[in-house]
Write a structure and sequence with these properties.
Oligomer: single chain
Structural class: alpha/beta
Distance between the termini: 86 Å
CATH class of the largest domain: Mainly Alpha
Largest sheet: 6 strands, mixed
Number of strands: 10
CATH topology of the largest domain: ABC transporter transmembrane region fold
Strand order of the largest sheet: 6-7-8-3-9-10
CATH superfamily of the largest domain: ABC transporter type 1, transmembrane domain
Length: about 600
């Protein structure tokens, strides 16, 4: 049974460290390969004796020795298989652990990293590059060990038969080393170019599939196909360049080894005619040389494998060595937070562009706060800073009196639940999307929780109206649902998580008036159970909260209750008046349409 794998944060991610970690398995493989090559040495020397005995007429002894040779051959086969199991397992386990560490690192990295590296590029590294590293740490290590022992075992046989013929057979070895060195350098460069091109193409395909509706709605299939064709041609050129190099390396090295074999037959025949080498000795020599020739031929393949592994790992290092922007604080985890939130002089910038300036407010446990402002006023930025989804400045956000930068991320994010405006859904069922925060979303109690949350988010009737109900698969990023449905499924998911403070980023932006009323009622119920921050541009929604702050240009320009702000006659009062006029115009428009419809239907 394999030893338990350490936590992802403790897994060594360098090639050297992984090699040392798998060393016990490599050691077992080394002993088995040594036993196999020792058996081959015994086989070659006894084969010579069996042939010579047969030629001398001693059939009984030759036959008995032949049976022993068969038994050793079968045993060698078993040993060889076990050696590969041991070494290949090392490569597989290394791949498994490196993938765990890679996902752990990806989960730690912040938005700055994902702005630089696309999803398709990441997927290429997680799949193709890790496969090359696994081959390096499995098949590559096996062939290195096997080549060394095959060399020792074969030379022990050939030197005992004829040192002259051995030297003649190794005459082509310097040429093999020169050719190997030449190809090694080029393979590394071309393999890295190939992997980079594959990552770019994977990113383009992933982007095209995710945006297929947009492509079709603008009738840009031809343009997108042309863009893909150019990227595909680039990938083809890189692949072909690598294939030409690898394809030419094999024949060149085979040609060199073939010359060595011709030398063996010519000079070996000459020694046999002179009586310096017996027929059995030549057969044993040739068999031992064949065991040596294959590792030498495979040396070119092994060099290519090592260089592909190195090139792939150099791309993986960009992820392993990326520094997360947001890390756990030094304080221990806190399980019983009451949910008191205080923001004090919070300022935040994207590069050189200030987004928030000296924002301050308090949210006592169990209270509600609305954040109102025009587009671009910093509302959504403030929302992602509260649970530290963006790197929040130290000394600005406090939970129960503790700076969120000093608390573990798990503590902060379990206490501050965030439902984003642009809802992201996983490509699974509606039920699993809503119950994502539950340990067992398919269990009976969880299904009841999911159903209640769907009802609160006013999506239950629509879900039950679908052919598969909660088992309906929403597709990539929820493509099978409308924008309003996606938003309400995400809202139900936020309700299920049951944080101490629930941050809702404009949950009413994609719903009609009737659905809005139902969601506002659900939000009203949420207020009685936990602290609530409602980010909205709708005055009707903000009026339901205990307190309201108004953002303008990243600053808090007004603060108070709905009645206080309306009476103050400031920005909030202007919002209220604008939306009152909009509602009046909508009502008048509806009243005008009704008589028009009746007249059209009159006989």
């Amino acid at each position: 049974m394999a030893a338990p794998s350490p936590p992802p944060s403790e897994i060594p991610v360098t090639l050297g460290a992984q090699f040392l970690r798998q060393l016990p398995r490599y050691g077992v493989g080394l002993l088995l390969i040594a036993a196999y090559q020792a058996a081959q040495y015994w086989f070659d020397t006894r084969l010579m004796r069996a042939v010579n005995l047969a030629l001398e007429g001693e059939r009984a002894s030759a036959t008995w020795l032949g049976f022993l040779l068969i038994a050793v051959a079968l045993g060698s086969f078993v040993i060889r298989v076990l050696s590969r199991v041991a070494v290949f397992n090392g490569g597989r386990i290394a791949e498994y652990e490196l993938r765990r560490a890679l996902l752990h690192r990806l989960q730690m990295l912040g938005p700055a990293f994902y702005r630089k590296m696309s999803t398709g590029e990441i997927m290429s590294r997680v799949t193709n590059d890790l496969t090359q590293v696994r081959l390096l740490l499995g098949f590559g290590i096996l062939n290195v060990i096997n080549t060394l022992f095959a060399l020792a075992s074969a030379l022990a046989v050939t030197l005992s038969m004829s040192w002259k013929l051995t030297l003649a057979s190794l005459g082509t070895l310097p040429f093999l080393l020169i050719v190997t060195r030449h190809f090694s350098r080029q393979i590394f460069t071309r393999q890295k170019d190939y992997q980079d091109s594959l990552g770019e193409m994977s990113s383009m395909v992933q982007s095209s599939i995710a945006g297929m509706r947009v492509i079709k709605s603008f009738s840009l299939e031809g343009s997108e196909l042309g863009r893909f064709e150019r990227q595909n041609q680039k990938y083809y050129d890189k692949t072909l360049a690598l294939a030409r190099l690898r394809g030419s390396m094999g024949p060149i090295m085979s040609a060199i080894t073939t010359v060595g074999i011709l030398v063996v037959f010519w000079y070996g025949g000459h020694l046999m005619l002179r009586g310096e080498l017996s027929a059995g000795g030549f057969l044993a020599f040739y068999r031992a040389l064949a065991r040596l020739t294959w590792p030498l031929i495979a040396l070119g393949f092994l060099v290519g494998l090592v260089q592909r592994g190195r090139a792939s790992y150099s791309r993986l290092k960009e992820i392993y060595q990326a520094e997360p922007e947001i890390v756990d604080g030094p304080l221990p985890a806190v399980e019983a937070l009451s949910g008191d939130l205080m923001v004090r002089n919070l300022s935040f910038s994207h590069g050189d562009d200030p987004v928030l300036k000296d924002v301050s407010f308090e949210l006592p446990a169990g209270k509600s706060l609305a954040i109102v402002g025009r587009t671009g006023s910093g509302k959504s930025t403030l929302a992602v800073l509260l649970p530290r989804l963006q790197p929040a400045p130290r000394g600005a956000i406090f939970l129960d009196g503790s700076d969120v930068c000093d608390l573990p991320l798990a503590t902060v994010r379990s206490a501050v639940g965030y439902a984003q405006q642009n809802a992201f859904l996983f490509s699974t069922t509606i039920g699993r999307n809503i119950g994502y925060a539950l340990d067992e979303p398919d269990a009976a109690p969880s299904l009841l929780t999911v159903r209640k949350a769907a009802s609160d988010a006013h999506i239950l009737d629509e879900v039950l109206g679908l052919p598969d109900g909660f088992d309906t698969v929403v597709g990539e990023r929820g493509v099978q649902l409308s924008g309003g449905q996606r938003q309400r499924v995400a809202l139900a998911r936020a309700f299920v998580s049951q944080p101490k403070i629930l941050v809702l980023d404009d949950p009413l932006s994609a719903v009609d008036a009737r659905t809005e009323k139902g969601i506002l009622e659900a939000i009203e119920r949420q207020k009685r159970e936990r602290g609530l921050i409602l980010i909205t541009h709708r005055v009707a929604a903000a009026a339901r909260c205990d307190r309201i702050i108004v953002l303008d240009g990243g600053r808090v320009v007004e603060s108070g209750t709905h009645d206080e702000l309306v009476a103050a006659g400031g920005v909030y009062a202007l919002f209220a008046e604008e939306q009152r006029i909009e509602r009046e115009l909508e009502r008048l428009g509806e009243e005008e349409l009704v008589p028009s419809g009746r007249e059209a239907s009159a006989p």
